[in-house]
């Protein structure tokens, strides 16, 4: 069996395997992560055991493993599925590394994973993992091709690490020359994920996906007030007989009501904001009301009916998108107003009677404020796990259970307004976000998914009402935004405020890295080259950076204890050559006789004689 002594081969490859799996784990769902963890542990124990036909056993076991992965991907042959296959092949290969050819194939797979990870993700952690895998893989390739065993010496370690780090300037040069570009070649479908808003809203819809710590986007400013941070994704305007809310297709709205929506006095203001949108593999784009995409995307559709954005292709890479504010006046025709008041016949008669009783002798504005106060003053609770007695039973929620979360309150609010013949609709997206104390930005996670209501006002257009936030804090039973709280228990636990600070600082570093990485495009490359052309020294340094790295590597080959001691000895001779008449031809004893009363130099000369002459 091929071995080396610098780091045990199996240990080195185990580190590489863990790094590779960590670089892939961001795209894995929880059950897939558990599956990969099981495979790594199994592979580790098989690696420790030697038995006949191990290779054949692993080859046959690969088929059911790949089938299980396909099941976990819901039988979708997506890009993520094939990337996960590469990770699985690496784990299987790790189980059997008893020849140079197998070690070579293992290193080759890890090299592919590092490149794939670097292409797919642009955040700080992914970039660090990718470069670490790349360096360790070069390290591995070098050791595989050694004809003799290498001892664990500083010289050998420096030599091998120097070879590995030679790849860093090459990566830098490639990054400078070839800026980040979008390649819209789409061969495979993207896998399903839980980011975003569902296509239908029923009672309990948000519960299945909102409890997630996955980041959705970053807002690159803090200029907005909290009550302005309602990012729109989808609008739900039609209630089915089964009391499920759906979004009417934009083309249907245009075809049926093209003469019922009038827009005039449209003008743009000098008011912009940017977001960094994560690669969620879907088409939706979160945006604030009265803001439209102005930079970052060219293939999108803007709905003037719903004031929402939708890209024509899936968002598969992080994007920096700029939005510009605009003002407009809208007029809805009677037919379109009637559309926003439609309800199925399956609505409970108890709700109809309640609205008839409480809307009486009230204007629309008075009734809307009455509804908000009704949820605020009565025993309604915010609860992520409400008791469910029937499917989509809004009447039971409103009169009996009185516990739910955003889509419960938004759904019943629209029903109660439509029963009063007030045009209204449900808007969904993201609300609030998390402020970063180190940078001028806010982060929005899937747990910030929210639903609220818009009501039509003839003078002011669509007006936002959020019945969920009318629930007072004393009646919030549980929420998903409790990740960090102060814990003080006689000093036994470190305050989670410290952990929050560490997290915020790392997030800030990641934000700076990601912003710089994504913003670097062809235009940035041209500007950088122009800057270098005006600074000849920087340009020469950039061109000769790989060459300089190679020369440093060659110098490192000669680095050892004797070499360094000789250099220090020559520096001492040079220092005292004029004052003490010390010459380069002097022996250490002769030189010391001339340099008197210096104990440090005496110790060094003794070390010099012992190292150079006696060893």
Strands in their spatial order, largest beta sheet: 8-11-6-2-16-15
CA-to-CA gap between the ends? Answer: 35 Å
Global outline: elongated
Count of DSSP helices?
21
Count of DSSP strands: 18
Largest sheet: 6 strands, antiparallel
Global Rg: 33 Å
Defining traits:
single chain; about 625 residues; alpha+beta; about 45% helix
Explain briefly what this protein structure is.
It contains 21 helices and 18 strands. Helices cover 47% and strands 16% of the residues.
Overview of the structural elements:
- This protein has helices at residues 9-24, 30-48, 54-72, 79-94, 100-120, 124-144, 154-165, 167-177, 250-257, 334-339, 349-359, 364-377, 394-401, 406-419, 496-519, 522-534, 536-543, 545-556, 561-576, 588-594, 599-612; strands spanning 200-201, 215-219, 230-236, 238-239, 245-246, 261-277, 284-285, 291-295, 300-303, 308-311, 319-332, 381-382, 403-404, 424-431, 434-435, 442-445, 449-457, 461-465.
- The protein has 615 residues and is an alpha+beta fold.
- A 6-stranded antiparallel sheet has the order 8-11-6-2-16-15. Strands 3-14-17-18 form a 4-stranded antiparallel sheet, covered by helices on one side. Strands 1-5-4 form a 3-stranded antiparallel sheet, with no helix packed on it.
- The longest helix is centred in the last third of the chain and has 24 residues, at 496-519.
- The chain is elongated.
- Mean pLDDT is 79; it is low at 1-6, 180-188 and 481-494.
């Amino acid at each position: 069996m091929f071995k080396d002594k610098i780091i045990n081969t199996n240990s080195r490859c185990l580190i590489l395997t863990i790094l590779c799996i960590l670089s892939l784990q961001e795209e894995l769902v929880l059950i897939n992560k558990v599956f990969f963890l099981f495979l790594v542990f199994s592979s580790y124990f098989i690696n420790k055991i030697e038995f006949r036909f191990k290779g054949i056993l692993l080859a046959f076991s690969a088929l059911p493993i790949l089938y299980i992965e396909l099941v976990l991907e819901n039988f979708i042959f997506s890009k993520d599925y094939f990337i996960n296959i590469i990770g699985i092949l690496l784990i299987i290969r790790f189980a059997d590394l008893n020849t140079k050819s197998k070690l070579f194939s293992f290193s080759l797979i890890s090299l592919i994973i590092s490149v794939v990870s670097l292409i797919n993700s642009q955040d700080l952690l992914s970039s660090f993992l990718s470069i670490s895998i790349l360096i360790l893989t070069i390290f591995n390739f070098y050791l595989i091709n050694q004809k003799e065993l290498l001892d664990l010496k500083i010289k050998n370690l420096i030599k091998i690490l120097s070879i590995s780090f030679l790849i860093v300037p090459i990566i830098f040069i490639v990054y400078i020359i070839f800026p980040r570009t979008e390649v819209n070649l789409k061969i495979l479908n993207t896998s399903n994920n839980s980011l975003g808003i569902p296509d239908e809203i029923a009672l309990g819809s948000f519960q299945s996906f909102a409890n997630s710590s996955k980041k959705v986007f970053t807002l690159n400013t803090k200029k907005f007030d909290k009550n302005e941070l309602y990012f729109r994704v989808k609008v739900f305007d039609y209630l089915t007989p089964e009391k499920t809310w759906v979004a009417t297709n934009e083309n249907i709205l245009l075809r049926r009501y093209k003469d019922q929506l009038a827009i005039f006095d449209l003008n743009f203001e000098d008011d912009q904001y940017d977001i960094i949108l994560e690669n969620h593999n879907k088409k939706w784009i979160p945006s604030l009301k009265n803001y439209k995409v102005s930079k970052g995307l060219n293939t999108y559709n803007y709905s003037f009916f719903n004031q929402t954005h939708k890209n024509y292709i899936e968002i598969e890479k992080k994007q920096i998108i700029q939005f510009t504010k605009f003002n407009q006046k809208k007029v809805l025709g009677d037919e379109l107003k009637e559309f926003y008041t439609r309800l199925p016949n399956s609505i409970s008669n108890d709700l109809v009677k309640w609205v008839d009783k409480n809307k009486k002798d009230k204007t629309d504005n008075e009734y809307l404020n009455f509804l908000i106060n009704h949820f605020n003053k009565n025993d309604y609770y915010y609860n992520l796990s409400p008791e469910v007695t029937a499917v989509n039973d809004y009447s039971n929620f409103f009169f009996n259970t009185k516990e739910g979360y955003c889509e419960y309150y938004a759904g019943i609010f629209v029903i109660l307004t439509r029963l009063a013949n007030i045009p209204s609709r449900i808007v969904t997206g993201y609300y609030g976000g998390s402020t970063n104390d180190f940078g001028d930005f806010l982060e929005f996670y899937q747990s910030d998914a929210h639903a609220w209501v818009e009501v039509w006002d003839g003078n002011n257009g669509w007006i936002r009402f959020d019945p969920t936030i009318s629930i007072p804090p004393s009646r919030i039973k549980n929420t998903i935004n409790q990740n960090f709280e102060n814990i003080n228990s006689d000093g036994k636990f470190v305050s989670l405020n410290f952990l929050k600070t560490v997290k915020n600082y790392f997030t800030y570093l990641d934000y700076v890295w990601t912003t710089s990485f994504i913003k670097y495009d062809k235009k940035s490359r041209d500007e950088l080259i122009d800057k270098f052309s005006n600074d000849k020294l920087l340009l020469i340094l950039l061109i000769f950076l790989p060459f300089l790295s190679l020369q440093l590597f060659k110098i490192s080959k000669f680095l050892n204890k004797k070499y360094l001691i000789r250099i220090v000895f020559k520096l001492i001779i040079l220092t005292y050559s004029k004052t003490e008449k010390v010459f380069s031809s002097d022996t250490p004893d002769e030189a010391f006789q001339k340099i008197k009363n210096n104990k440090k130099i005496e110790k060094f000369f003794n070390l010099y004689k012992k190292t150079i002459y006696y060893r």
